[in-house]
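Subject: Sanity check before I submit

Could someone independently write out the structure tokens for this chain? I want to compare against mine line by line before I put it in a report. The sequence has 77 residues.
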Amino acid sequence: MHRTLRWREVGIETNLRALRDGIVIRRARLPPENTHEIRMMELWLSSIENVLGKIVGGCTSTASTSTRLCRRGMSGM
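---
Independent answer below. Compare away.
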């Protein structure tokens, strides 16, 4: 026998946007000569934007499980 998993919204979009906004503020405060940390922040921002785009823009993942859930409207969870 197996248990059915229930979908519970955790507010990942809100959390990612807050994280992104915090990184943008921190990035703006960095001195221009701090190139290592600036590159890290830009990489993080790019990754967060990518994830947000996938969440907000719909399901674009090629993984079979993700694709299956997208077709079912995430209601399978």
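---
OP: Matches mine. For the report I'm noting this point. The chain has three helices and no strands.
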